[in-house]
Amino acid sequence: MKKSLVALAALAVIGAASAQSTVTIGGQLDAGIRSQKSSVSALGKTTTEAGGISGASRLWIIGSEDMGGGNKANFRLEMQPGMDTGATNASLFNRGAWLGLSGAWGETRLGRQGTTAIGLICTVDQSGCYSGFSGGGILFAGNGTQSRWISANVGRGQTAGGTMAQANAGDFTRVVNGVTYLTTNMSGFTGQVQYAFGGAANTQANGNGSVWGLNANYAQGPLFVGLTYQKAAADATVNATGKMTTLGATYDLGMAKLGGIYQSEAASGAVAYSSAKAWALTATFPVGAAAPYLKVGQHKTNGVGAFGNVNSADSQIFNLGTYYSLSKRTRLYADYAVDNKGSSGAVTAAPLNAGLNNTKPTIVSVGIQHNF
Q1: In 3D, which of 201, 199, 198 has the Cα closest to residue 233?
Q2: For the segment 270-294, what is each residue's pLDDT rounded down to a tens digit?
Q3: Residue 319's domain spans which residues?
Q4: Of 3, 106, 152, 366, which is the most buried if we count CB atoms within 10 A?
Q5: Beta bridge partners of 76
């Protein structure tokens, strides 16, 4: 009897310890039909089944251990399976791979993670940055990897290869080798500080491609306001530096929720443009199970690529669509997007999804999205 009680006590201790750690597997799946065409007849029209039309499909593993005293150890691993072919990105956890600690003092994260600007941008987007061109909402415009609408990472797209100050420190929406500190919520105020190590040795002319950023948000009642500043050092291959400031806000009127964002970029060195301005206005109108949305705005540069070069980053976007919830986790969507900026530049047989060379691309999409 005594041995049985000891065994039961041991099992209880093990069970209590196990309850303090949680691992969750979840994700989002997105598939639909997309029709694209260009104002340049030589590029024709394509209609295809595609994945990630209204946001990339992803699978994540999230873990947390309660260490007592309000302190936790946390991690996130996130990959991107394609619903059209089933393939995954060559970098398995391309959408996130970080580990950190949290408590009453705030939170730290180390590894591959979102930039200080991405949360602000997707909050103002109101649809999670899921719509229009490349399923990126106000993040992406109609000129592929070279064009931006509202940028989440300083320097991306300012050079022909889109690598200014970022080759070693991240991609369009994330940083690698990143160290981030997030504050707790203080009467509606939250903050974030981030530094991403470039990982390359310094040279006489160039730096190591490091990036740092600051973010401050205020959310209270129907109002949200956010401000982000980012700065990038030159990387090992491109002698260029850059900085970017982003200010955005939303206000919930009940029958509609309105959003606005403004962004200013500046760069020096071997860049395609040395300054750029971008803005976007968003609105959602929830009606029962439906959630119509409207997004308009532009990105304009002062560079040689403006209005007609293959490296142009100018855009003028109109995006209209709606979601319709079939259940708590599954929804349908219909989306229309057009980039009205520019019509010159050499025409190539490039994929239409980029709207390369300012061909005024339009995209019409319908699909289904499921969260689990």
Answers
A1: 198
A2: 776 778 899 999 999 999 999 999 9
A3: 22-371
A4: 152
A5: 62, 98
What are the φ and ψ backbone dihedral angles of 124, each rounded to 5 degrees? -70, -35
- Residue count of the chain, please give it: 372
Phi first, then psi, for residue 66 (nearest 5°) are -80, 115
30-48 burial code (b ≥16 CB/10 A, e <16): bbbebebbbbbeebeeeee
Locate tokens 């993040």: which residue? 139
Any idea what the CATH number is for the domain that residue 190 is in? 2.40.160.10
The count of domains in the chain is 1
Q: Any bridge partners for residue 217, and if so which?
A: 190, 226
**63 or 174, higher pLDDT:** 63
> Is the CB of residue 164 less than 8 Å from the CB of residue 271?
yes
**Count of beta carbons in the 10 Å neighbourhood of residue 136:** 25
3 located within any domain: no
Each residue of 53-71: pLDDT tens digit?
Answer: 898 899 999 999 999 999 9
Question: Can you say whether residue 340 is alpha, beta or left, with left for phi > 0 and alpha for psi between -120 and 50 degrees?
Answer: alpha
pLDDT of residue 207: 66
**Does 367 map to a domain?**
yes
3-state secondary structure 339-372: ECCCCCCCCCCCCHHHCCCCCCCEEEEEEEEEEC
Q: Is residue 1 part of a domain?
A: no
User: Closest by alpha carbon to 97, among 123, 118, 78?
Assistant: 78
Output the six-digit token pair for 318: 């109109």
Burial of 232 (0-12, 13-18, 19+ CB in 10 A): buried
Distance CA 142, CA 335 (A): 15
CB atoms within 10 A of CB 255: 8
Classify residue 16: in a domain, yes or no.
Answer: no
Q: Report how far apart, in Å, the C-alpha atoms of 263 and of each of 85, 154, 161, 174, 315 are.
A: 36, 11, 22, 18, 14
pLDDT above 70 covers what percent of the chain? 75
Model confidence pLDDT, tens digit, residues 301-328? 886 544 444 445 678 899 999 999 999 9
Higher pLDDT, 224 or 42: 224
Q: What is the pTM of this model?
A: 0.86
Dihedral sign for Cα 18, 19, 20, 21, please: positive
